[in-house]
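User: My collaborator sent over this chain with a note saying "see what the structure looks like." That's all I know about it. Can you take a look?
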Amino acid sequence: MVDMKLKKSLLFTLVLLVIAVLIHIYSYNSIRVENQYSTGIYPAFSSFLRYIFGWLPFSFGDVIYGLVILWLIWKLAKGLKALLRKKVTLKSFATGLRKAFHALLVVYILFNLFWGINYNRTGIADQLDLKMAKYSQEDLRMINDLLVAKVNTSKTSLVNQQLKYPTNSELFSKVKHAYTNAEKTYPFLKYKPVSLKPSIWSWVGNYMGFTGYYNPFTGEAQVNTLVPKFLQPFTTSHEVAHQLGYAREMEANFVGYLSTAASADTLLHYSVYLDLFMYSNRNLFDTDSAAAKKYRQQLIPDVMDDLQEWKRFSKKYRNPVEPVFRWIYGIYLRRNQQPQGLLSYDEVTGFIIAYYKKFGKI
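Assistant: Without extra context I'll predict from the sequence alone. Here is the result:
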């Protein structure tokens, strides 16, 4: 009986490993992934998930995450208790390791089948036929010059109109309409049905440093609604891009820009252009700090006030755990076709420069 159970367990392990290897082999061909999975299977499947969970007024995925964390804490406490009472045998330890390995393999397989294969697609640059060449200092100065003007103009408009920041539902509606407009030019950005939720764990996000995230198991996009309001529109647009299958962070940033640029909403414009300016300004700072500072000094006082608010917010929630989380997340990004780790977000600058060179606008 014991041998039979062990054989079944090993067979199950083998089956899971074979499936994982097949996924890896399939993902190796980016053109195949783009044509079959990312623009074929995935859009239909992700829409199905959003139909199931999108109508809920809360994030079902966040509830699941919470329950899983509680279960893991309970299992850890139970294991430590057994260890202290010396009830852990070599056999029970090996069984526990096998079960943990099975669980990790199942999560890996589901993650990739539900969404993760998108990391290997050719992506938005291919869809728009952008020439993604290495950009120069002159390119960086050019894009900083354009973006600082966009930031100042949109902020001035917001101040003059005395526009108030929207509620969560109003913000999500604005982003939905932005994608509806973008779809007219880019049919592959069709976003229906909608599944945008305030994160139940926003307060945790403040300490861990995240402003939003996508749950590939439920198709829901969550936004940290406790961060400064001017950050939330771009975060929301970014998370919708993840829902549409743009897994890499720089691509999600760029798709978020495309949707916002198709909108007439000044609030969305300000949020996206401010983020893009910060990315491009950091890129410029790495090669020409004096020029980067010069462009930053051109920001109008109202924008500088927002940046100070952002700085105060980050300082308030700074803690020893955040760098550890960011390090782990950086490893995750590098393992998923983003060798720059957390700096992958900044790589949206290359997309914006290539887009401007082709279309003459941002």
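A starting point for your reply to your collaborator: The chain is about 70% helix and 5% strand.
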